[in-house]
């Protein structure tokens, strides 16, 4: 067994991008250490055997970017379909088109509005609070979109997401609540959008498929840390607080429970994602994966569909950490960890868990490409230290 030139901890899109670049551009031997039984991090998916439907194991993953470099890079490994994401929301027995737009406003208030009429209506309803004076999330939301839309489309959903009354949540959690005064209901505004034609896992596996890359699955880095720490450069994409033994305390995360079910109907909800805005419905949304790939219709088993319900809660010991929580307490801790990370010799910290930042896939890839060019390439080519 030869010593690798670089160890990458975690095989999510951040780790894979680093590994692929070092292997293909610098001809370095890379060892990827992954504690799960599969590569790909949270973007991983599987084709359900019974129905032929691709199921995203860690929640829906929609690819979108306006970054030309990222778009060129990802297409080395996969083509993308022309899927454009749409989201709907159920409230009191009706289904509305999200994000909030003219169709939703007209349906909700039961009459047609011109864009200017709708704008005036929402501005009038939003005048109840001044944004700068909002004391909590509820007042801030009302100051942005008015009470009626807040109570229908933000209040119940937010309360479920945070397990807290929005009156008890910080106004800083939201900065804007976009309302579109058009009928445009495309969810993302990015220039490029689509889903990997052969599925996420085929894409992720192609990134790792290089003779210079070795993948060690089912291996927690901390069980082999002494073999590599201080001996070879390491790019670490696991939780930053875990790396430092939680010395500044645990960072808190939100997690999502995913309850999957195969139903004996061809089509359950007619679209991929429907939010549950009613406060008494315990889940936050329902996902029906077959709708993400209408082009695969002839490969699906007729009369069957896969539906996943998402339940949001605070992560406990052993749960998957999904979303960082922006509170003063966590902000203080992360500053301490960032400082420790900067000083850690021969180790670079990256990705969602390594930086305690929510990163979309395109952001994780962009950030890894930057780390590769600014830190790893100079290190390997000119011997500059890894900091
Ligand atoms: P990621 O979490 O993917 O990978 C980290 C890897 O490190 C994991 O495989 C983990 O097992 C491993 N690891 C951690 N500690 C380790 C240790 N000690 N030893 C070994 N291995 C270790 N993005 C987007 O663009 N569109 C979308 O629709 C979504 N949707 C979405 C839903 C949900 C619920 C989440 C949580 C995230 C998304 N994302 C997304 C974000 C997307 O998943 C994101 O880009 C990646 O998580 C970022 O990749 P990373 O490589 O940073 O982390």
UniProtKB/TrEMBL annotation:
EC main group: isomerase
One MF annotation (Gene Ontology) recorded for this entry: UDP-galactopyranose mutase activity
Family: Belongs to the UDP-galactopyranose/dTDP-fucopyranose mutase family.
Gene Ontology annotations for the cellular component aspect, listed alphabetically: cytosol
NCBIfam families assigned: UDP-GALP_mutase
Alphabetized UniProt keyword annotations: FAD, Flavoprotein, Isomerase
Pfam families: GLF (PF03275), NAD_binding_8 (PF13450)
InterPro entries, sorted: UDP-GALP_mutase (IPR004379), UDP-GalPyranose_mutase_C (IPR015899)
UniProt-recorded name of the protein: UDP-galactopyranose mutase
Cofactor: FAD
Organism, scientific name: Nocardioides turkmenicus
UniProt EC number: 5.4.99.9
Signal sequence annotation: none
Top-level division of the source organism's lineage: Bacteria
Domain UDP-galactopyranose mutase C-terminal: 152-358
TM stretches of this protein: none
């Amino acid at each position: 067994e030869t010593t690798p030139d670089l160890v990458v901890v975690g095989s999510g899109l951040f780790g894979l991008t680093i590994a692929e670049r070092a292997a293909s551009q610098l001809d370095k031997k890379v060892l990827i250490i992954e504690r799960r039984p599969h590569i790909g991090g949270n973007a991983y998916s599987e084709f359900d055997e019974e129905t032929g439907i691709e199921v995203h194991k860690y929640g829906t993953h929609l690819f979108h970017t306006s970054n030309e470099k990222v778009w060129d890079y990802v297409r080395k490994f996969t083509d993308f379909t022309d899927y454009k994401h749409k989201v709907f929301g159920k409230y009191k027995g009706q289904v509305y088109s999200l994000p909030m737009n003219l169709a939703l406003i007209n349906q909700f208030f039961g009459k047609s509005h011109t864009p200017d009429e709708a704008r005036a209506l929402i501005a009038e309803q939003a005048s109840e609070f001044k944004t700068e004076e909002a004391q909590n999330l509820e007042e801030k939301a009302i100051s942005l979109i008015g009470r009626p839309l807040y109570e229908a489309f933000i209040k119940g959903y937010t309360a479920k997401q945070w397990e807290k009354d929005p009156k008890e949540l910080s106004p800083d959690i939201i900065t804007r609540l976009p309302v579109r005064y058009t009928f445009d209901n495309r969810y993302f505004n990015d220039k490029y959008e689509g889903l990997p034609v052969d599925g996420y896992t085929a894409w992720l596996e192609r990134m790792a498929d290089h003779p210079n890359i070795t993948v060690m699955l089912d291996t927690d880095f901390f069980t082999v840390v002494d073999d590599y720490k201080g001996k070879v450069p390491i790019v670490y994409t696991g939780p930053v607080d875990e790396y430092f033994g939680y010395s500044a305390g645990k960072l808190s995360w939100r997690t999502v429970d995913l309850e999957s079910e195969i139903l004996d109907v061809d089509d359950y909800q007619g679209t991929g994602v429907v939010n549950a805005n009613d406060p008494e419905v315990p889940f936050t949304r329902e996902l029906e994966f077959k709708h993400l790939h209408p082009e695969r219709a002839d490969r699906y088993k007729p009369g069957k569909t896969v539906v996943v319900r998402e339940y949001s809660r605070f992560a406990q010991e052993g749960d998957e950490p999904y979303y960082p929580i922006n509170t003063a307490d966590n902000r203080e801790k992360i500053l301490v960890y960032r400082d420790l990370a900067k000083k850690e010799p021969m180790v670079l910290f990256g990705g969602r868990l390594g930086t305690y930042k929510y990163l979309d896939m395109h952001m994780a890839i962009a950030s890894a490409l930057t780390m590769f060019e600014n830190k790893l390439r100079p290190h390997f080519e000119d011997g500059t230290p890894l900091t």
